[in-house]
Amino acid sequence: MVQNKQKSAKLPRAGKNTVKEPAAPKEENWQKVKIKGHVISDDFGNYEGLIGLEVLKDYDAALVKSSQKRVRSKYPARNSESDSEDEVGATAKSSKKARLAERHAQKMQKLREKREKRKEQRKQKKTKGKAEEKDAEDSDDSNDEYAADRFALLRPPPSDDEAAEEPDQAESSDEEDEAPDLVPISTVNGEDVSAWNGLGVPSPILRALGEQGFKGPTQIQALTLPAAIHGKKDILGAAETGSGKTLAFGIPMLAGIMELKQRNVSSGIRKAPKVKGQQPAEVADDEHELTPPPEELDHVSGASDEESDMEENAQRKQLPLYGLVLTPTRELAVQVKNHLVTAAKYTGIRVAAIFGGLAVAKQERVLRQCPEIVVATPGRLWELYSQGNHHLKKIEDVSFLVIDETDRMVEKGHFEELRSLLKVLNADEQKKQQRQNFVYSATLTLVHDLPDHMQKRNTGKRPKFVKQTVDQKIESLIEELGISQPKIVDITSTQQTAQTLTESRLLCPLEQKDFHLYYFIQRHPGRTIVFCNSIDCVKRLATLFGLLDCNPLPLHANMIQKQRLKNLERFRDSPTGLLIATDVAARGLDIPNVEHVIHYQVPRTSENYVHRSGRTARANKHGITVMFMEPGEVKSYVKLYKTLERTEDLPLFPISERFMGAVRERVNLARDLDKEELKLKRVQSERGWMKKHAEEMDMIIDGYNDESGSDQDEDPFVIERRRNRLHVETVRAQLNALLAQPIFPRGFSFKYPNSEAANQVSTSHTQSAVETMKAAIEDQKQAKKDRNKRKRNA
Ligand SMILES: Nc1ncnc2c1ncn2[C@@H]1O[C@H](COP(=O)(O)OP(=O)(O)OP(=O)(O)O)[C@@H](O)[C@H]1O
């Protein structure tokens, strides 16, 4: 249903790196064209025939763009500032109810006029071009190659003077009421945001995006928004870390909720498949009184001025829960909630986060407000749901389900509660079909080699076990989650990590890892996350680097939740912050300007490597990752390297031995201090224990009961404690004296030998870690070329 010329051009297929930039439209003259591939009918879209195009697996975005221009001319761009001024003025003049009623009456009047006009036009058209139309349809139908469900009628939205459309579509013009939300706005605060137009982003959301400085969609957003907003399709999206996946599901969910509210429907963004003799659960009512646009509802606090608390509670109990977002970690739940709140600023949609570690009573209070979107970790959600929480009971009817970091969430042995939740969510087939699902992760399409024990059993001609393909992985996800007909967008590169990330590794014996870490932090100050494989390792490093005055902020699952969130806040606030964390911080956390990610230990899985590394180099910024490897970790590194389909070893991060002496001295002193402090604590706690028991038994033991006794000096415990304390103070004084001196003097510049290059790499104190590494990579390349040249000449 595109023009003949476009028909012959191959439409891009969604798939690994296959989604291409759209070509410019060639002709404006639209007509029916057959399209190969699956076409989903447009249920609730506002761009009429366009939707057919947008929901196509292989749709051509160029066509959408050409139509978009027409839409703009129909709804000329508004100046958002002057609009908002008008609105303020209007609010001052009339009461809210009167204004809404007036607006509604105007809309209905317009709608009636339009319908009349269309009917008139249709009549005229029918008598004129009946013969022509029939011919065209006959020729289409006679072609057996295309089944009926593979057709879509695509045409630009009608302008006032244009011929009319298909009767059934004209009859369903109640959806035109939603058009004003899609009126494209071109500027927000003087910034051009027109790049968002045509994707279906309602203007209140666009306004909030513009205020955040998001001038246009990221690639994953551009590729998924039309199918999600217009086509109401389930989305399975894989894109690199930091590429804007949160808004790729957040925007369609908010847009969908706005639409449901306008239609005054509490659930079911999609029409349920028709079953003979059965009415769909909820049908949008043509003549239903429109709910006020969300931005005009005083959702959170305003309404309570006029209503009593009880009334308000009773009303809120009726408020639907439209969207549910599940995340694997508590910190991610908080972050996603914050992203959604910012994007929903002008929609009046309320969002809450529910997660473990905080008081249940507090979260129940939050839920009593009946937020329209709940972002949650599966454990706490299931706990509250099982207890019969009134608002969470509504998850059975949610219209939008997001499973963020899906591959992690469905991992065997994790998040058992997710399976229970899915059973509840998918219990009713009709509700399941009506729900729109979003499944996103940076490593959704990463597949693993068979584990060693399986490979060993693969003897003989017919292998017993075969590696799962990407398609199989996706199919099993679709089945497990109960998704129907998703649009799959995979734009991850083969290397899986962000294009702007510089990757490197550092080889050193186990006991030297601390030296190298301290060297790195001192040499390249900047916001750094150090990832460890265990909580014990995090604790040890946090103590050691605390003694070295690096102000480390630990983050692991055994910390109390408030402290976890506080440490993240502090890290966010400090430009040279040092976060030492387990993989609890590996996924999804979006902390701006993280410059370095250090894998203190080789990650256990390639997914962890990709996600840990993805805390830097986000949103097209540059960043570096350094993987510390001791000889015992080489095997894990090789496995990781194979899964990530790397063909070249990660380059080595350059270290200057010249400064390592000073580094070792400090780290060793800090280690001593740590040991001595531990000893002192142990002696003290032992003494406390003895004293307590002595008191309980009403006994007097020399040296334990009273320190001021005359024979105290003879007490071996007191003597030992005094000696320890003295030693601790001496070591601390020594360390403090050293720490007062910079290791790398300001203004220095030096050359360090590169283990792979014959020549030396020069650096200066101002050079960042990324620059240092890039220079080293260039040098290593040059050295390799020189070596090959020498070999050829020899
Ligand atoms: N259209 C946009 N323009 C500019 N910045 C954007 C846009 N969309 C999102 N961002 C910003 O990009 C950053 C990364 O986004 P987000 O956290 O959604 O990435 P992600 O793909 O979910 O990453 P991860 O895989 O690590 O979870 C955020 O700071 C977000 O505010």
Outline the structure in words.
The chain has 794 residues and is of the alpha/beta class. Among the domains are: 187-268 and 319-447 and 470-492, P-loop containing nucleotide triphosphate hydrolases (Rossmann fold, 3-Layer(aba) Sandwich), CATH 3.40.50; 501-658, Rossmann fold, CATH 3.40.50. It is built from 26 helices and 17 strands. Strands 5-6-4-7-8-3-9 form a 7-stranded parallel beta sheet, with helices on both faces. A hairpin with a 2-residue loop joins strand 1 and strand 2 (191-192). Helix 9 (245-262) crosses helix 11 (330-343) and helix 13 (378-386) crosses helix 15 (416-425). The longest helix has 46 residues, at 96-141. It is globular, with a radius of gyration of 32 Å. The N and C termini lie far apart (65 Å). Residues 1-94, 133-180, 278-307 and 755-759 have low confidence and may be disordered. Residues 214, 217-218, 221, 239, 241-247, 442, 588, 590, 614, 618-619 line the site of adenosine-5'-triphosphate.
